[in-house]
Amino acid sequence: MSDPPLRGNRPKTPASPPVRRKALRQQAVAQGQYATRRARVWLAPGIGVKRWLTLFVVCTLVGAVGFLHFTWTGPLHFVATRWILYLNGLTLPGLIPLHITGMVVMSLALMGAFFSIAMLNRSMMRGIGTMPGAAVDLIRERRTLSRGLRIVALGGGTGLSNLLTGLRAHTGHTTAIVTVSDDGGSSGRLRESLDMIAPGDLTDCYAALSDSPVMARLLLHRFTRGDGIEGHTFGNLLLATLSEEGGGLTEAMQDIHDVLRIRGQVFPATTTPATLVAHLEDGGVIRGESQFAASVGHARIRQVSLDPPDLPTLPPVLDALRDADQIVLGPGSLFTSIIPALLVPDIAHAIRGSQAPLIYVASLMTEPGETDGMSLEDHVRAITRHLGRTPDCVLVNSAALPPDVLQRYTEAGAWLLNLQGASPDLIGCAVVLPLLQPGQARHDPVVLAHALLHLTPRRQG
């Protein structure tokens, strides 16, 4: 007896006619539902399509009436007469009024016009490499983002990039002003060898706002081998390359935004390399951001400064602050991420003169070696002391950390920041909301973005 045929080699039995008809009906229903959904999206409020469709219909009808007037009163009168008599002959006498025939013909003509526009749109979208179904989504997204708030966020580290990840879905007018005083890791090595600003936090923010998922992933790739590039991220090397090729980041900034397809803007607080200096309460001094955490047990930080102090900033940074609907500080490390951006003189002056609300997103925990023993009110006072303006609102997390996460941070010397023991002034300007990612001691970017957007009215236009 021969072996049975392998399962993968069995001949396919054609489906029976009833089964095939059922499958075709289901496919037709699915296509009809898809077309209906697409039509609803095209007609959704806010994407600027309904007004032009209405204008198209009105102009078509007016044009039809004008053409009829021309043919009836002009040299083509005989053509119009023969056409009307022909349509009358097709109408069932006594059953269908003559004007109904005209309405049917007019409706068919409009349907044909809409169909031709749809086919023209499909051909154009395929010609430029865009799926026709994706065009309406892209239009709707861009229209929505164009009406979003003008938000300027200052800081650095994972806190700022997390915030940008949440904001990118709601507005296309986000501007990140990034602290660039880091002197450790990949950023420190590039800074020392190329005499450039630290690119690490810039890379994280570019990845968070990039419209290209592939580029966002590549920017954060860290090399684990290779002489000279081990430990560097691709994004840091890319920024270093563009800076060298363009004669500095100032000249390369527009190229960077174009290459990475940034939804918004990302700028360094200054384009001049600077060293972060901590002045301690006992008179001691710590130079270099990377040395702060390594000096656990030293006296508390009283003040920080940048060396050199008179640092320039880019004109687009000041333009963004002038036009801002909302200015956000953090989330991030107080003395190494947030305050260094405020030490650039022109930035501090622009924030003090801005009418936009200043919102401080409070850190979740203190940081060993940096904010040991500081309460939430101490954080706010430090910002006021360095900036010369007190935040109008402090956004505070109310969600409880998982016990194991809290224990791990406590063993490392970090403590929760909350409103316990706060003054009436701080309590009066605080907004307390659950802002945590589940199971982590990190702000949820989606929840945080929604919270910030609800603190400032939506911009019109």
Automatic annotation (TrEMBL):
Zinc recorded as keyword: no
Known HAMAP family for this protein?
Answer: Gluconeogen_factor
Q: What does this protein do?
A: Required for morphogenesis under gluconeogenic growth conditions.
Q: Which InterPro entries match?
A: CofD, CofD-like_dom_sf, Gluconeogen_factor
Localization per record: Cytoplasm
Supply the CDD domains for this chain: YvcK_like
Q: Where are the transmembrane segments?
A: 52-72, 92-120
According to its UniProt record, which protein family does this protein belong to?
A: Belongs to the gluconeogenesis factor family.
Known PANTHER family for this protein? Answer: GLUCONEOGENESIS FACTOR-RELATED (PTHR30135:SF3), UNCHARACTERIZED PROTEIN YVCK-RELATED (PTHR30135)
- One Pfam family, please name it: CofD
Stretches for region Disordered: 1-21
Native source species: Deinococcus arenicola
Q: Which domain of life is it from?
A: Bacteria
- Descriptive protein name: Putative gluconeogenesis factor
Main location group: cytoplasm
Q: Which UniProt keywords apply?
A: Cytoplasm, Membrane, Transmembrane, Transmembrane helix
